[in-house]
Amino acid sequence: MTQRITSADVIITSPGRNYVTLKIVTSDGVVGWGDATVNGRELAVASYLADHVVPLLIGREADRIEDTWQFLYRSAYWRRGPVTMAAIGAVDLALWDIKGKSLGVPVYQLLGGAVRDRILTYTHTTGRDIAELKESVAEKLEAGFRAIRVQSGVPGLNRVYGVNDRGGAYEPAQRSAVAPEEDWDSDLYLKTAPAMLEEIRAHVGPDIKLLHDVHHRLTPIQAARLGKAIEHVGLFWLEDVTPGENQEILHLVRQHTTVPLAIGEVFNTIWDVKDFILTQSIDFIRTCVMHAGGLSHVRKIFDLGDLYGIQGAPHGPSDVSPITMAASMQLGLAQRNFGIQEYMGYPDLAKDVFTTSYTFADGYFTLGDAPGLGVDFDEEAAKKYPYEAAYLPYARRLDGTVADW
Ligand code: GCO
Ligand code: MG
Question: How far apart are CA 289 and CA 320, in angstroms?
Fold first, then answer.
C-alpha cells in the first residue's frame, strides 16, 4: 500500500544550541525525523523548508526517496548551496527514517547491510595552551576515545578557532546579536603548531590517532610547509589546510607532504567536491550527511571517493543534530570506504529533546536495531527551548583584514 506524506512541520529548538528539525508524517501514521541545522543561518533553512518545500511534499509518496530528491533538486532550478542542500538533506533523512520504520529495520539494512561491526570515531580536545590541551586530551582518553582532534591557542593571539578563550569546552557558535571576532596570524600559528603537535604526540604515545583542523587558514605554500614540518608526528589527518574553493591547489600541497589531507565539510554536492576526488588530492572527504543533501547524495560522493581509495569521514560537530549523527552512523555501518566519524558531543540539554540509540565504547560507536535512523525527538521538551540568535565567529588578521574562518 502506498503511504503518502500527510504533514511536514519545521521545529526550531535551542536546547543548549539551535537545531532545526523536520517532522514528516505519513498516511500510515509513520513519523520521520530530519535535521536541517545550518549553524548561524538556521532560520534561512527553516523558511526554505516551511515556505517552499513543505507545500510540495504533501500528498507525495513517502517511499519514493530518490525521486523526491531528484524532484527537489532539479525542480528548484536554483541549485546547490548550503541552504538548499540542507533542506533537501532534511527531507531525505526523514524519508529514510520513515522507510526504515515502515519496514521495521534500521536504515543501514536498506543501504546493503553492515560491512563492519562498529564505527571508529574521533572527538575534539582543546586548550588555551599546551598544558590545558593535555588535560583535555587526558579527559577524552579517559572517556574511551582513541582518535582525537587537537587544537590549541596560539601565543600572541587572543581568540582563535577551536579554543574557548575562557577555557573549557569549545562551541563554535555563540549566542549573541553580532558575530564574535577572533584573531588570526598565519606566521604566529606556523611558528608554534608543529611543536604543539609534537608535544601531544610524545604525550599520548604512538597508538592514539591524532587529527588537527587548520580551518581554511593557510595559503597553499604555507600549507605545504606545515605538512612537511609535521610529517614525523604521524597525524591521522590534517584538515582544511586551505580555503576549499580552490580545489586544484591541494594537488600542490600533496606534492610536498605525505600527511593525509581531509577536506569538504563546507561543500554540499558531488559537483562541489569532484575535483578534489578526481585529481586524488585528498585522503578523506568530509561532506556532512545532512548539509550535502542527505544519505542519498552523500552515498554517491563516498562511492566516487572509493574509486580512488579516498575515505568518507562525515562532519559531526555539535551543530548538526543527533538525527544527522545517527544517519551518519547508519551510513558508516554500510559504506565500505567509511573512514572515521567525527563526534564532538552535545550540550546536556540536547539530551532532553533527542533520544538516540547509538552507543559508545572503546573508541567506537555501535548502532542498535532500532528501526529507521534510531532517534526520537520530544516535541514537548523542544518547546521549552526557544530559538536564540547565535553567530559563528569570524577572524581578522593583525592589520584588521578579514581572514578566512
Ligand atoms: C569541524 C568543524 C566545525 C565547524 C563548525 C561550524 O571540523 O568539526 O570545523 O567545528 O567549525 O561546524 O559550524
Ligand atoms: Mg573542520
Answer: 10
pLDDT for 248 equals 85
Which residues lie below 8 Å from residue 136, measured CB to CB, with a gap of 6+? 125, 126, 127
Is residue 289 within 8 A of residue 329, CB to CB? The reply is no
Same domain, 298 and 257: yes
- Among the bound ligands, the one closest to the CA of 38: 1
Distance, CA of 174 to CA of 227 (rounded, Å): 31
Minimum CA distance residue for ligand 1 atom 3: 317
Would you say 290 and 87 are in contact if contact means Cβ atoms under 8 Å apart?
Answer: no
Active site residue 170: no
129 shares a domain with 223:
yes
CB-based neighbours (< 5 A) of ligand 2, an ion: 213
CATH number for position 363: 3.20.20.120
What integer pLDDT is reported at residue 72 of this predicted model?
98
Domain that holds residue 332: 110-369
Domain count for the chain: 2
CB of 42 within 6 A of ligand 1: the answer is no
Q: Whose CA is nearest to atom 2 of ligand 1?
A: 317
Look at residue 21 and tell me if it is in a domain: yes
Location of C-alpha cell 549573541: 176
Residues 184, 240 within the same domain: yes
Instruction: Give the 3-state secondary structure of residue 288.
Output: coil
342 CB near ligand 1 (under 6 Å): yes
Q: Is residue 353 part of a domain?
A: yes
Options 215, 216, 297, 315, the catalytic residue: 215
Q: Are residues 16 and 158 in the same domain?
A: no
Concerning whether 161 is annotated as a catalytic residue, the answer is yes
316, part of any domain: yes
Nearest CA to ligand 1 atom 11: 172
Residue 291 has pLDDT above 80, yes or no: yes
Q: Nearest CA to 299 among 320, 323, 270?
A: 270
Per-residue confidence (pLDDT) for residue 244, from 0 to 100: 83
Q: Is the CB of 18 under 6 A from ligand 1?
A: no
Instruction: Report yes or no on 401 lying in a domain.
Output: no
